[in-house]
Design a protein that fits this description.
Radius of gyration: 17 Å
Structural class: alpha+beta
Strand content: 15-25%
Helix content: 40-55%
Shape: globular
Number of helices: 8
CATH architecture: 2-Layer Sandwich
Length: 220
């Protein structure tokens, strides 16, 4: 990958014991929940209990972990999990005809690998509001429109970043990661900030694979 600073950060975040290394049990549960959400329906606590039993993992730790990475509805059902959401968000994400959303632009590049499905994506630039459209399979982006689109990525301190809740994850990552129609547009948006890197879509996909591969290696 061309962007050394972003790559080094992500490797530290996902290395053994890093903030985004969830370990085998939590990773298996998270992927199971995400793949259920991808069917287009909430995940009930009864289903979570069934997953926990089938995976033979510790219930208390499992529920505590899910509270930090999931969105809930009024009935306490899971409607979003670590980047994938049933709620209407700006990053539209469609798999197998099911309309979903992603928490940030980078999530749209990670989720096809985790779900093992091809996704169509539409996400507006925060500058021009022009939609960026992509088709992404588990191995990379098949289509990008406009072709010069890029993705911003925030740079955080892996030793200090807060990942203790959904809101903390949004604040650290999602509020800073968007698609743009061009590098010039992204640089205009990021002017004056030293905590943002601008990546090509291919670079963004490769960066996301550091997260996806860690989760799937554990989940396997």
């Amino acid at each position: 990958m061309a962007n050394t600073r972003a790559t080094d950060m992500m490797r530290r975040l996902t290395e053994a014991g890093g903030p985004l290394d969830f370990g085998p049990d939590r990773s298996r549960l998270l992927v199971r929940v995400q793949r259920t959400l991808a069917e287009g329906r909430p995940v009930s606590n009864a289903e979570v209990d069934r997953f926990i039993a089938e995976l033979s993992i510790a219930p208390d730790d499992a529920h505590e972990f899910l509270r930090t990475v999931t969105e809930r509805d009024a009935d306490d059902r899971i409607v979003g999990a670590a980047g994938l959401s049933l709620n209407e968000l700006q990053h539209r994400f469609v798999v197998n005809g099911t309309r979903l959303s992603a928490w940030c632009a980078e999530d749209t590049l990670i989720l096809p690998t985790l779900l093992d499905q091809t996704a169509t994506i539409e996400s507006p630039s925060p500058v021009s509001k022009q939609p960026i459209r992509l088709r992404v399979n588990p191995r990379g982006a098949e289509e990008v429109d406009p072709p010069g689109a890029v993705v911003s990525h925030t740079i955080v301190d892996p030793e200090a970043v807060d990942v203790s809740s959904v809101e903390a994850l949004w604040g650290a990552f999602c509020h800073h990661i968007f698609f743009f129609t061009s590098r010039e547009e992204a640089e205009e948006w990021a002017a004056g900030r030293d905590d943002i890197e601008i990546l090509s879509v291919a670079e963004g996909f490769e960066l996301g694979q550091l997260i996806a591969s860690r989760l799937l290696a554990h989940a396997a």
